[in-house]
Specification:
By secondary structure, the chain is α/β, with parallel strands linked by helices. It has two domains: 4-158, Rossmann fold (3-Layer(aba) Sandwich); 160-286, Hypothetical Protein Tm841, Chain: A,domain 3. The chain is 41% helix and 24% strand. It is built from eleven helices and 13 strands. The two termini are 32 Å apart.
Length: 290
């Protein structure tokens, strides 16, 4: 097997079990809930995902803070010291400073370990979109691909990693500046749900709307049907803001309509869930374009 390690951050929203199976090193990002800081560990050790969403539903204030270069450096350097190269796969630069912090850490460490390769990749992805790209990178590694080949694979394929999502409550997107106050008010009154995606620059873009929750969930699958590349052979990821029943519905639809055999579901973690809110539903797959 290729001698390099894959490092990522907790915005990948993979389960702790899958991260262990994939042999990842994961940097937990942080969030502040009611003036107390927590780390977004994938196993929810400091706060369970259900508890997090319960607090948000109760109207408690949550914010996120930027990760710094030193956080990444403390994770990466011991790996380099052990004689192993590092490929760091990070949260979209269009949504966070995480990639920039990872890149700076790699650039600082590279001269100290000239015999090692240490790279940072901007996924331009979020939540299990990032997680799916990390998963695909590990599959390439396990095929014996070198660190340079896997890095090239990520750069070639990340803009084929499609993100389609909807939210239950527009007010969370309003607080984050993603929709206007008027849009949030009218959408709430009329039960209008946005249908959004992540574009080629890694930004959240509102591209449509649906009347009612079930219609918005069906719209996600409609978009997958339009662009998915050989869906029956793909592993598809779904993340949700404490809405397992809706995730099960979307999973059932992609299996029934598109012949998908393997679907992985998990929570939208607190760092992203702070901005998207309870009831977020997101579908991730490989397509002809985003």
């Amino acid at each position: 097997m290729s001698n390099f390690a894959i490092v990522t951050d907790s915005s990948c929203d993979l389960s702790a079990k899958m991260a262990d199976e994939l042999e990842l090193t994961v940097l937990p990002l942080s969030f502040n809930l009611s003036d107390k800081e927590y780390h977004n560990y994938l196993d929810g050790r400091e706060m369970s995902f259900q508890d997090f969403y319960s607090h948000i539903r109760n109207g408690e204030t949550c914010t996120t803070s930027a990760v710094n270069m030193e956080d990444f450096a403390t994770r990466i350097e011991p790996i380099l010291q052990s004689g192993t190269d590092v490929l760091c796969i990070a949260f979209s630069s269009g949504l966070s400073n995480t990639y920039n912090a990872a890149k700076l850490a790699c650039e600082e460490l590279a001269p100290k370990y000239p015999e090692r390769k240490v790279y940072a990749v901007d996924t331009l992805c979020a939540s299990l979109g990032e997680g799916l790209l990390v998963y695909l990178a590990v599959q390439q590694k396990r095929k014996g691909k070198s660190i340079d080949e896997v890095r090239a694979y990520l750069e070639e394929n990340k803009l084929h990693l499609c993100h389609w999502f909807t939210v239950e409550d527009l007010n969370h997107l309003k607080r984050g500046g993603r929709v206007s106050a008027a849009t949030a008010l009218i959408g709430t009154m009329l039960n209008i749900k946005p249908v959004m995606h992540v574009d080629d620059e890694g930004h959240l873009i509102n591209v449509g709307k649906a009347r009612g929750r079930r219609a918005s969930l069906t719209a996600l699958v409609d978009h997958m049907e339009e662009t998915a590349i050989d869906p029956a052979s793909q592993v598809v990821f779904i993340s949700h803001g404490d809405s397992q029943k809706d995730a099960d519905f979307v999973a059932e639809q992609v299996k029934k309509r598109l012949g998908v055999k393997t679907v992985v579901t998990n929570f939208v973690g607190p760092v992203i869930g702070t901005h998207s809110g309870p009831g977020t539903m997101a579908l991730f797959f490989l397509g002809t374009h985003r």
